[in-house]
Write a structure and sequence with these properties.
This protein is of the alpha+beta class and 108 residues long. It contains 2 helices and 5 strands.
Length: 108
Protein backbone atom coordinates (compact mmCIF):
# COMPACT_ATOMS: atom_id res chain seq x y z
CA UNK A 1 0.00 0.00 0.00
CA UNK A 2 2.80 2.41 0.81
CA UNK A 3 4.57 1.52 -2.42
CA UNK A 4 1.66 2.78 -4.52
CA UNK A 5 1.48 6.10 -2.63
CA UNK A 6 5.21 6.61 -3.08
CA UNK A 7 4.93 5.83 -6.79
CA UNK A 8 2.19 8.44 -7.25
CA UNK A 9 4.16 10.97 -5.22
CA UNK A 10 7.17 10.49 -7.49
CA UNK A 11 5.08 10.32 -10.69
CA UNK A 12 5.74 13.95 -11.66
CA UNK A 13 9.51 13.61 -11.35
CA UNK A 14 11.69 12.37 -14.15
CA UNK A 15 13.83 9.40 -13.23
CA UNK A 16 16.64 10.16 -15.70
CA UNK A 17 17.02 13.81 -14.62
CA UNK A 18 16.52 15.31 -18.08
CA UNK A 19 14.11 18.20 -18.59
CA UNK A 20 13.00 19.84 -21.82
CA UNK A 21 14.90 22.99 -22.75
CA UNK A 22 13.67 26.49 -22.08
CA UNK A 23 12.84 27.13 -25.73
CA UNK A 24 10.75 23.98 -25.93
CA UNK A 25 8.76 25.10 -22.90
CA UNK A 26 8.18 28.66 -24.12
CA UNK A 27 7.52 27.78 -27.79
CA UNK A 28 3.70 27.38 -27.41
CA UNK A 29 3.45 30.79 -25.75
CA UNK A 30 5.51 32.44 -28.49
CA UNK A 31 3.39 30.74 -31.12
CA UNK A 32 0.18 32.07 -29.53
CA UNK A 33 1.58 35.61 -29.37
CA UNK A 34 2.51 35.48 -33.07
CA UNK A 35 -0.93 34.17 -34.04
CA UNK A 36 -2.71 36.89 -32.03
CA UNK A 37 -0.53 39.55 -33.66
CA UNK A 38 -1.20 38.26 -37.16
CA UNK A 39 -4.95 37.75 -36.70
CA UNK A 40 -5.89 40.74 -34.55
CA UNK A 41 -3.33 43.54 -34.38
CA UNK A 42 -1.95 43.57 -37.92
CA UNK A 43 -5.34 43.97 -39.69
CA UNK A 44 -6.27 46.73 -37.24
CA UNK A 45 -3.02 48.59 -37.95
CA UNK A 46 -3.63 48.32 -41.71
CA UNK A 47 -7.17 49.64 -41.27
CA UNK A 48 -5.94 52.61 -39.21
CA UNK A 49 -3.31 53.46 -41.83
CA UNK A 50 -5.92 53.35 -44.61
CA UNK A 51 -8.28 55.58 -42.57
CA UNK A 52 -5.49 58.09 -41.91
CA UNK A 53 -4.52 58.15 -45.60
CA UNK A 54 -8.15 58.79 -46.54
CA UNK A 55 -8.37 61.67 -44.04
CA UNK A 56 -5.10 63.18 -45.25
CA UNK A 57 -6.36 63.10 -48.86
CA UNK A 58 -9.57 65.06 -48.17
CA UNK A 59 -10.01 68.16 -50.34
CA UNK A 60 -12.68 70.75 -51.04
CA UNK A 61 -15.58 69.31 -53.01
CA UNK A 62 -15.33 65.78 -51.59
CA UNK A 63 -18.65 64.30 -50.50
CA UNK A 64 -18.28 62.66 -47.10
CA UNK A 65 -20.15 60.84 -44.36
CA UNK A 66 -19.22 61.50 -40.73
CA UNK A 67 -19.25 58.93 -37.98
CA UNK A 68 -22.46 60.58 -36.75
CA UNK A 69 -24.16 59.95 -40.08
CA UNK A 70 -24.04 63.50 -41.45
CA UNK A 71 -23.74 63.60 -45.25
CA UNK A 72 -22.23 66.68 -46.81
CA UNK A 73 -19.70 68.31 -49.10
CA UNK A 74 -16.43 69.80 -47.88
CA UNK A 75 -16.38 73.54 -48.59
CA UNK A 76 -13.44 74.52 -46.40
CA UNK A 77 -10.53 73.04 -44.47
CA UNK A 78 -8.87 74.50 -41.37
CA UNK A 79 -5.63 72.50 -41.37
CA UNK A 80 -4.10 73.95 -38.20
CA UNK A 81 -7.20 73.06 -36.15
CA UNK A 82 -7.98 69.79 -37.94
CA UNK A 83 -11.49 70.97 -38.78
CA UNK A 84 -13.55 70.62 -41.95
CA UNK A 85 -16.33 72.99 -42.95
CA UNK A 86 -19.06 70.79 -44.40
CA UNK A 87 -22.11 72.00 -46.29
CA UNK A 88 -25.06 69.73 -45.45
CA UNK A 89 -27.79 71.76 -47.19
CA UNK A 90 -28.10 75.02 -49.07
CA UNK A 91 -26.50 77.70 -46.87
CA UNK A 92 -26.16 75.26 -43.96
CA UNK A 93 -22.56 74.64 -42.94
CA UNK A 94 -21.19 72.76 -39.97
CA UNK A 95 -17.68 72.32 -38.68
CA UNK A 96 -16.58 68.76 -37.98
CA UNK A 97 -13.35 67.22 -36.84
CA UNK A 98 -11.28 65.53 -39.53
CA UNK A 99 -11.21 62.40 -37.38
CA UNK A 100 -15.00 62.12 -37.50
CA UNK A 101 -15.04 61.42 -41.25
CA UNK A 102 -15.89 57.77 -41.74
CA UNK A 103 -15.82 57.59 -45.53
CA UNK A 104 -15.70 59.51 -48.79
CA UNK A 105 -18.75 58.96 -51.00
CA UNK A 106 -17.25 59.94 -54.33
CA UNK A 107 -14.01 61.31 -55.64
CA UNK A 108 -13.75 64.58 -57.55
Amino acid sequence: MFGISEAFAMGGQSTDGSQPGFLVQIFPLLLMVIVVYLLIFRPQIKKQKAQQAMIDALTKGDKIVTSGGIHGTIVGIKEEAGILVVQVAKEVRVEVSKGSVSRVLEEK
